Amino acid sequence: SAPAAPDPLAQLNAEQRDAAMHGTGDTAHDTRPLLVIAGAGSGKTNTLAHRVANLIRHGADPQRMMLLTFSRRAAQEMERRVGSVLQKALGLPGTQSLPGLPWSGTFHGIGARLLREYAGRIGLEESFTIHDRGDAEDLMGMVRHDIGLSETKNRFPLKGTCLGIYSRVLNTRDPLEKVLQDTYPWCSAWEGQLKKLFGAYVEAKQQQNVLDYDDLLLFWAEMMAEPSIAQEVGERFDHLLVDEYQDTNRLQSEIILAMKPTGQGVTVVGDDAQSIYSFRGATVRNILEFPSQFAQPARIVTLERNYRSTQPILDASNAVIGEAKERHAKNLWTDRAASHRPQLLLVPDEASQARWVADEVLRQREAGSALKSQAVLFRTSSHSAALELELARRSIPFVKFGGLKFLEAAHVKDMLALLRFAQNPRGRMAGFRTTQLIPGIGQATATRLLDAMSEAAQPLQVLQSFDVPSQAREEWTRFAALYAQLRDPAVAWPADLELAKAWYLPHLERLHDDATVRKLDVDQLVRLAAGYGSRERFLTELTLDPPQSTSDQSGVPHLDEDYLVLSTIHSAKGQEWKAVHVLNVVDGCIPSDMATGTQAELEEERRLLYVAMTRAREHLHLIVPHRFYVTQQSGGGDRHMYASRTRFISEAMAEKFERITWPQAGAADAAAGAKPSAPVLQVRDRARAAWR
Ligand code: ATP
Ligand code: MG
């Protein structure tokens, strides 16, 4: 027989191997659910990938595995890792194609697919469209206005706050009263009105055949409450595996339980010390309660060896998280010794912070760390503004993750609304946005049209024969023709997008002075579309998992190019770099000024710093600008603030860091550009000398 292929599991340590092999081979009789709980960089994600590969090698069908990750990117990365493990294990040549994992993705993405598939049986229309956060807020605002709760009249909470409350009620499964008490105490007086508002909001979504993000989880959970469907859906999957379990919410844990009540085939991995999404309703209680949640108790595997970071980086990170009020003590160790400690850099202001980082990034590159192996992390998207300018000035290529506004740009929204309106003629937000692009069509006309369309069996005919104000008539005819084509099944994707673009461009030019720049985004949208099989898929996935970076937009990954990563800490979860530079490690930024209200909020900020620090493999720099700029949330203008080192790094842990002041005394003035330095040369003297 052929020589045995290398066993990929041999690379794992004993605990990792136990987790990867649980329920297969010698332990095939063990049907317990599995929980891997372990600290940062201990190989949880890596173990999960090996587990998937190992299950497949033991005959599991990849079509019958559901793999839930935090982002679509993470799912793709997992699929790649599983593929490479399998490739080695099976001794396949690199060209051989491997089984994909068709059911890997985010909870929301997988939920959308299941709901569309089961739509007919659970009272949904298959053609439903999905509201992004902006649409959901706008609809909430519209409903709020319609039932007479306008903010101007009686200071009723803003539409964003209303949506936040509604969303929290659904995701935490707590009653409205408790959510108000715990999280929105200043809105408690409005409980009755809010209830009425949410009732009307739910009604409106139904009438319009739209779902919001929360519905994707809620309806999935509801669907699983029907025993016949629950059994059928549950039985379609032999394995259900979840990464980053510490950031799931109640609704998500309910779904897992309903999918697999016995716990057989369920694997979750997570780290309670890295829970950073409680503002979205995530709760570490999920991890804590997992062991006793199913018909049989779970097997728990803990991992203690860290493979990512050097000992000094671990020491510093452990010191920071060690002061957390609540956590499972973990003893992470590593054999990656290093002589240098993480650096704490004291700089005068954000401009010098930007200069220092740019210098350091280049220094690291000189020393052999490609830009790609480095990242700059920050608490809030706006914190990188000064650095972005500095990088651009020095032509250092970078991509930015998190907080990207591509889909929020008006022209991109216009295009997407057009497609959504074609997909679902009853969707009001899309309908309003689209029809009002036409001069002469105002709110009143749009309302009449949409009312008529939503009641008609043939909405297209209603639109085609609709009587519009005379100045709009000519353009309306063109629009009606486009709409007919977009509704025509014979016009295939993405040809319909090209038609939409052709119709839209003249409007773009009319509406915006900077149309040329905006047109580039529209072009990018079209390019992006090529990666999706259908309009429905495109709209769903773009809404659920918008492009995360400036490079994602083009749909073309930077394969060869070297670039620096800029990312919010939240978006950096699960990833690692050789060198990590963290900006604004000062009180007011970490912890954020807006998160110092309660002990729980503060604790989450501490975990956030821990997540940032544990992304680093070899070099970690925490930068502390003495002065920084704050953008006021509620008017009042921006202002400078004097800040001090974050409270999470106490004097007692100071020896874990190397403290550096930059620029050093003496060099300060020159570097800060405050005073011109003494000239090294006097050209006029030379000129004079020539005539002497
Ligand atoms: P996080 O909590 O940040 O998500 P994690 O626990 O998921 O971290 P991984 O990302 O899976 O950790 O692994 C961290 C690093 O350690 C990766 O570079 C991975 O390749 C490496 N690693 C994991 N296990 C081993 C091992 N047994 N031998 C060598 N390297 C390993
Ligand atoms: Mg991980």
TrEMBL record:
Broadest EC class assigned to this enzyme: isomerase
Alphabetical list of Pfam families matching this protein: UvrD-helicase, UvrD_C
Presence of keyword Coiled coil: no
Keyword presence, Isomerase: yes
Alphabetical keyword list: ATP-binding, Helicase, Hydrolase, Isomerase, Nucleotide-binding
Gene3D superfamilies tied to this protein: 1.10.10.160, P-loop containing nucleotide triphosphate hydrolases, PCRA, domain 4
Residues that hold ATP according to the record: A38, G39, A40, G41, S42, G43, K44, T45
Stated name of the protein: DNA 3'-5' helicase
